[in-house]
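>> received
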Amino acid sequence: MHDTTSLQQLEFPRIIEKLQSLLSTPFGHQEIERLEFSGNREVVEQRLQEVHQMLGLIEAGEYIPLSGFADIRPYLDQIKPEDAYLEAEALLRIKGDFQLMGELMHFFREHQEQAPLLWRYARGVHYHRNIVREIEATIDPTGEIYDDATPELRQIRKEIRTLEAEQKRMLATLQKRYAEYSQDEIVTLRDGRMVLGILPSQVSKVNGIVHGTSASGATVFVEPMETLQIGNRIQNLRIQERTEIIKILRFLTGLIRGVRDDVYYALENIAALDWIYARAQLARELQAAVPRIAETRKLKISQGRHPLLILKMGYEQVVPLNLEMGESFTTLVITGPNAGGKTVALKTVGLLMLMVQAGIPIPVSPDSEIPLLPRVLVDIGDRQSLEQDLSTFSAHIVRLKEILEQADS
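>> returned
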């Protein structure tokens, strides 16, 4: 619709960079990546009204619950195969996003009268309460599976605790027996086995299996033969424990897989709300308004200010622009001394028109009128091209030729 050269010269990418910094979720960036300028009046007016409604909530002091989302899309992709499952940490992140979805939907349901256009997005964000409850009942906040997640897991862990207590008692006795062979009274875990720390010169005096040495080489880790059998039983139970945990994780993953498409749809709606929220925050910073969309090609800018200058200098420091054309005349020549604001005026007009077509309110008086033109074509500034060895004048001629080829009136 608008060529890259014009977008660059009008510095529209800097507006996009600012909006990217105002996004609250990992999902909003996709909306910016697929941003399209619209020449459809109904589409543009709806986009602007969506931002206006969001801005109304912000200015009323409402907290918009869009922050805190984790990017769960990789997990949703990962569980597409039926045999795939997620670890507890991933399930907790999904649970967290589901809870935030519930808060978001509840907020906009409560405010649907003030923001009916935003509720249309939020009602597509479902709160899967039953899945949240299942995860909460199964996984603790640190990512550990609760003992009573299943009767089988409870029994396995009970046996492990009993054996580990017996193992510790045995090791305490053996530690005293071999005290003269160790530099420190060390009982530690090595490769899943409980071991004693023995001096290298005394290893042959301890009947057991060596499981390695310390980084300094000053200690050899030995599992006494007296605890080998109980250690093996604990290891076997650990394998059974992991098998049972995987069964639990598969079950919870299956619940999420069952609503996977619905969650993708919810994330699309969250992304849309985040994109609207970012534009509303920018509008607030610019003290922007929603202009009227002209039915003709009439352009009327009242008290228009350059958005990037506002961001740099502050609203009051930017000189406003008043301009009207498109009815009795369609061509305007701006003259004046150097540093008199001619380029700023041209860039202000072009950038404001681009922002409106992108659904972004602009820093103008509300009685301004902006037409929706199929193209905004620009040639501003020094276009010296060293690569093509063209003079500044020749570079302008090449650009004007491009403009004439694209212009439709």
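>> Strands lie at 187-190, 193-198, 208-213, 220-224, 292-293, 299-304, 321-325, 369-370.
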